[in-house]
Amino acid sequence: MTTDPRSLAQLVDHTLLKPEATRADVDALVAEGARLGAYSVCISPSFLPVEVPAGLKVATVCGFPSGKHHSEVKAAEAARSVRDGADEVDMVIDVGAAKEGRFDAVQADIAAVRAAAPAPTVLKVIIESAALSDDEIVGVCRAAEAAGADFVKTSTGFHPAGGASVHAVRIMHDTVGGRLGIKASGGVRTAQDALDMVEAGATRLGLSGTAAVLAGLEADAGY
């Protein structure tokens, strides 16, 4: 398991999605992400395009945070983000469709965004795992894989049901791990939280408090 701070940083989408965020906040996020060695910065689509140093990827969100958008609207948003320089798009599913067991509709929604943002753009699918049963998590993960997604992601971090859990990450990994990436996001605030998610199968972490997590890891490891 990854315990070296530099290696862990390369799993991190350094994230700022607060509605009150300003351009100055985004500039500071980019500088901090580069300094910490994060894999990417994840920002709202209205901040695109954004200039980043070489080696730092740009991720954004789509249908965020509710997922209650028409598929064609999500597709248009994703296509615009790609034109504006996004390397990765994290889309939110219609969680209600999953709760109703309409996994065909979930798959079609994801497929629409995939068509609008084809490879090499990385497509992550936010399933809002805290609002789903175990069987629903499995169904959504299978739909994401069938639709051509690259990752499944636990959470927006804005849902009242909560964010990432080790339990959900394990189910996601057991369902699609090795074929799709697993992103744990929402409520991952400490070094131990991050390590627990990676141990459960997460291959990417969405963190807003990246500096604190890495500092905690350095302290625990005696760096």
UniProtKB/TrEMBL annotation:
Which pathway does it serve?
Carbohydrate degradation; 2-deoxy-D-ribose 1-phosphate degradation; D-glyceraldehyde 3-phosphate and acetaldehyde from 2-deoxy-alpha-D-ribose 1-phosphate: step 2/2
Gene Ontology molecular function, alphabetical: deoxyribose-phosphate aldolase activity
User: In the UniProt entry, which residues are flagged as the active site?
Assistant: 90, 153, 183
Write out the entry's keywords from A to Z: Cytoplasm, Lyase, Schiff base
Query: Mind telling me which CDD domains this protein's record contains?
Result: DeoC (cd00959)
Family annotation (SUPFAM superfamilies): Aldolase
Where is this chain's protein located in or outside the cell?
A: Cytoplasm
Official protein name in the record: Deoxyribose-phosphate aldolase
Q: Which organism is it from?
A: Cellulomonas edaphi
